[in-house]
Amino acid sequence: MKITNEILYTVIHCNHKAFLAKVQENPLPKTEFQTIFETLKQKQLSAIQTKLSLEVEFQNIDYSSDLKFEKGKTYLQISFRNSEVDLRLDGIYYDQKSNFTPILISPFEKVQKSDKLFIALQAHYLKQNFNLKINEAKIMFGNQQKSTKVILSNLSKEVKKTIATIEQIQKFETPPVFYKISHCQVCEFNPICSEKLTERDDLSLLGNLKPKEIEQKNNRGIFSVKQLSYIFRPKKNPYRRRKFLPELKALAIREQKVFIQKFPELEKKETEIFFDIEGIPDRDFYYLIGVVVKTENSETEHSFWADNISEQQDIFIQFIDLLNAQNDFVLYHYGSYEIQALKRIAKKLPLPYQNKVKKIIENSFNVLTLFSNDIYIPTYTNGLKDIANYLKFSWTDEKASGVQSIIWRYNWELNAENNLKEKLTTYNIEDCRALMKVQEWILSLSENNDKTVLANNLKQQNIFKWGVTVFALEHFNEINAKAYFDYQRQHIFLRTERKVYKAISKTKQTAKQYNRIDKRINLFPDKCKKCNSKEIKIVRSSKKSQIDLVFMKAGIKKQVIEYQGGAYFCYKCKKHFMVENMRRLPTYGHNIMLWSVNQKIQYKLSSESIVNVLKDSFSIKSSATQMTHFKEIIAKKYEDTYNEIIKKMSRSKLIHIDETIARIKGIDGYVWVFANYDSVYYQFRETREPDFLKELLQGFKGVLVSDFYTGYDSLECEQQKCLVHLIRDLNEDFMKHQLDEEFKQIVSEFGNLLRNIIATIDKYGLKKFYLNKHKKEVENFYKKVILQEFESDLALSYQKRFVKYKEKLFTFLNHDGIPWNNNNAEHSIKPFAKWRKKISKSLSKKNIEHHLILLSILQTCKYQGINFFEFLKSGEKSIYEYSEK
To answer: 385: closest CA among 365, 368, 369, 407?
Structure first.
């Protein structure tokens, strides 16, 4: 198969298109876009011929080795043919040094990456087959015949990759995997491919899914939209906003229903304006603005047309004047294109109009955002045409679309046909009407509609044996509730079974709190607190009991202290006074708080469990709320201890850092952990942004060990990336791509390098004196493996990763006592993760922060061999001073 321009063009845009072109016996008719492109290109060629004043002998030439080129001359439409290639160049320039410069002519105003790759491929085949000296290429583009230089060496990797693809396609007997892409809109094979994609219900039909996301879902065994619909799970917390969910979109298509995450609230104004802008993207030229103004009593249409770019500002001024005449309005648009156009043109307008544009933008609303976040309609994409078609709206011209409007405009510019202008203005106004139809439908949304379902009301089927069963009918939920063991025993069985009645009565008697007074303390003063007179009299007495625990060498016992106080009267100063201490006395003593916190933090008992232990072991009644209050009191007491930990760590030579999610009442917060050999510190943050680290670790001069989260890269200290994370990633990708020889080489060589280093660590420990010898091995690994040229995408991605983190992968070779992994931080996360797993409901930010203070102290005590409970009982505030005693 000869290499032709058509093959190069198709491979650049779509592998499947190249395959179809290869096997297609009879070429398909060209699309309207291809036809208009060729017409515009021919017009451009003629303009360049005129500009260069080329003679006939420099045009439409077939290359041969006998052909004599004149130095300093440009040749247009020159063909290169042999047994391998059949290429036709738009032009070629022969310079004074006998170098050839291939030329590509583009009728558009912007140079695309595909244009550069196309001319680079042509240059490659010319050099390979005709031994021409070519160092660079040139692209001439736009109505002004501007030009740009293409340095071929910069595109060498893309050229090699594309050539490899061409060679593969030549060998293919079955079509390669293909997806729906943007090029499909202008491709002649679109009807064939669309039919196949629809037949297999392909994931790429969902406009919001990218190829990498599709590949990830394919790896999970999900290949169709229907399969994707079955993995949707309603969110546990309805108050937490989630980004676009393709699985919910797939479910809407499967069920042919509309799913609502949140009912939208559109602002109601007396005037509603719907507008749409048509433009030529490569020129940044907006030539048509369509507007529909809707009031309570009328609807009016307006079209503002620009014949050329010089009239562009005029139509925007007319549009702004129209809106400025409205008193109270909301401006609806679909997508960001219109607002971007307004902002771009506003910069060229007089200052008064710039201020008016700001007001217009403030009153605008992008309807597309509702379909990106809240409304899932049973259409493959969220395009205006798809959604309006679902709502039974139709355009006059069935072919009308964004791409088609560009074709119509180009044709109008070439031929100035009035019917094309009418088509464009009609299409533009109908877009506004379609948007109005969508807005009216949104306002009519209701839960009462059979076709509308609130996504949060979807019941998730429980596939596990244990747990609460969710029934589809509310009657079943009521029936099931009456069948629970506790309910039947306490409400049903006791009425018929005497034994059950006796057992429940005994349980209630046992639950009574027995608080025998162990000690009485009289809080009445001996003299008046104001005049010190001893002539005082008790006028009202009161008692208050405090329950506490007494810690002994061999056990714990309950102690109840009764405090006596009240009001007294001084005969000398004639004043009444209250015993102040009575008011501040807590019901529970300090020791019971310490014991409860120890049970919760060290042994991870739930509040309910601690309450039961207190009741059963000490006959002390309390509540889960009381346990939370105990934790808050003790956490506040040890805030200085908590702050001392991070201060000590910031002066150390090493910190391990990691983070994990902590869900709080609809917000995904993060718990950050900092650890070294003798301390652990936890901190809660509402986001994963690492900005706070610079202040928290201010003055840290040691080595920071972390995973590959890019947020750590901004910290100005030496860093060691976790090599365990890296080998996990390498292993996971290798298991999926075992036939990738280039990637296999990276994995194998890195494994050998790391094995040698670990052998030294295992024998001598983390001492730089013994690790220093491996630096040369690291350099050799980079020179021989990492810095070579790769073709596979996976090998290239890891090459980039190894190069980026070269100075952070082997920092431990330069220091004593610096680990090569982040296991210390990962181990420190586990205590929090275990506690988080036991919590059955959302936590407040305050609750988590108090828990993290005490958890930091617990883990630091463990790292220093200190008994956490003994430290609490000691009353000390500094763990480091306590450890030295």
So the answer is: 368
